[in-house]
Amino acid sequence: MLIRYKKSCEKIAMGLLSFMPLERNIKKLRQTMQDYEENPACQLFMWKKGEDFIGMIGVQTNGPVFTVRHISVMPSYRGEGVGQTMLEKIQEQMEPLEMHALEETRPFIDVYKEKRKAFDR
Ligand SMILES: CC(C)(COP(=O)(O)OP(=O)(O)OC[C@H]1O[C@@H](n2cnc3c(N)ncnc32)[C@H](O)[C@@H]1OP(=O)(O)O)[C@@H](O)C(=O)NCCC(=O)NCCS
């Protein structure tokens, strides 16, 4: 289930964010968290399975598009479709905005877009 980030899961959100290659530096990580907390265009969501938060996805809206800035899944839950499901759910949530990617998230989002094209055919 995709739920909006709350301050109470700050530590787990930071842990998940730190799996993004450009977020390994603690200063950068704190700055990113601050963006999500303070910039209304930036929104962070957590993926909850049972009682656990096992994934996160962070987006930024800009006119008719939203950009997936961060996406991360706990290593022990990877390869089970969580990442792709988060993209599906975030697209539903952001409708009618169009999903864009950053260089850091593009490879995984391209996989999602290809699968969606194949499904729509
Ligand atoms: C990328 C990430 C979110 C994928 O989450 P996941 O839940 O394991 O992904 P899913 O199980 O939904 O999807 C698996 C599919 O995506 C592909 N995939 C996984 N990681 C990928 C990546 N970094 N780039 C491109 N494709 C990727 C897999 O090959 C697989 O494809 P298949 O079903 O055709 O075999 C996860 O590996 C992660 O947290 N990585 C560290 C953070 C990161 O680098 N994020 C940015 C990635 S561009």
Automatic annotation (TrEMBL):
Superkingdom, natural source: Bacteria
Stored InterPro entries: Acyl_CoA_acyltransferase, GNAT_dom
One Pfam family recorded for the sequence: Acetyltransf_1
First and last residue of the signal peptide: none
Domain N-acetyltransferase per the UniProt entry, residue ranges: 1-121
CDD domains from the UniProt entry: NAT_SF
Stated name of the protein: GNAT family N-acetyltransferase
Protein source organism: Planococcus liqunii
